[in-house]
Amino acid sequence: MNGFYHPGRSLLHRMPAAAKLLILAVAVTVVAFLRSPEALGIALTITVLLYLIARIPPRLAGRVILPVFWVLLLAVPLNGWLVGWESALTMGIRVVTVVALAGLFTLTTTVSEVLGAVDTLLRPLPRVDADRVGLLLALTIRAIPLLGEIVGSVLEARRARGVDRSLRAIAVPVIVRALQSSDELGDALIARGVDD
Q1: Which pLDDT score, from 0 to 100, does residue 101 have?
Q2: Domain co-membership, 18 together with 112
Q3: Which residue, of 122, 141, 175, is where some domain finishes?
Q4: pLDDT averaged over every residue in the chain
């Protein structure tokens, strides 16, 4: 997540993370219930305006939103063929809008602010251990780039050795290294007293 954070002094950057998280949840829920392409177009336009207000460079916005287009290249035509083109268009705009809103949150909020917001929102709940949820969220955020590093190093090693590019030749070392990393992490947590 820190890799996507874009420092700034805009209103969205200065807004408390807990408020942004609640607004994001409400906005995503509203977008999920919008049915017409026109209403979703308005939601997408508002999202673009928020990116402009936050002064997010187009290159960074593209990094956040572009991966979803690969999914939509398959999903929209398939949905159009099975259900109808208006439904496919609606689904496509909805997905882009939701991903863009989540991306805007990521680009304007640091990891520490997110963890603090989760802690603030969960503290009042009597049966929820906010510290454990915060730790789980922090580990998840850290695990995503770590897994990317593992995959990158396995691919680089395969390229250097000239070994075949079959899925098995890549997946097995990635899974083994991911399991080794998780064992090391588990041992480190136990050593620090974070266990049941």
Answers
A1: 93
A2: yes
A3: 122
A4: 84
* Same domain, yes or no: 81 and 135: no
124: pLDDT strictly greater than 70: yes
What are the pLDDT digits (tens) for 70-119?
778 878 888 888 888 888 899 999 999 999 998 899 899 888 888 888 88
On whether residue 114 sits in a domain, the answer given is: yes
Residue 150 in this model has a pLDDT that exceeds 60: yes
Same-domain status, 139 and 184? yes
Say whether both 149 and 102 belong to one domain: no
User: What percent of the chain has a predicted confidence (pLDDT) above 70?
Assistant: 92
* Residue 3 lies inside a defined structural domain of this protein: no
For the chain, what is the domain count? 2
C-alpha distances out from residue 17 to 91, 106, 107, Å = 28, 10, 12
pLDDT of residue 145 exceeding 70, the answer is no
How many CA atoms lie less than 13 Å away from 79 in the CB half-sphere?
15
Residue 53 belongs to domain spanning: 11-122
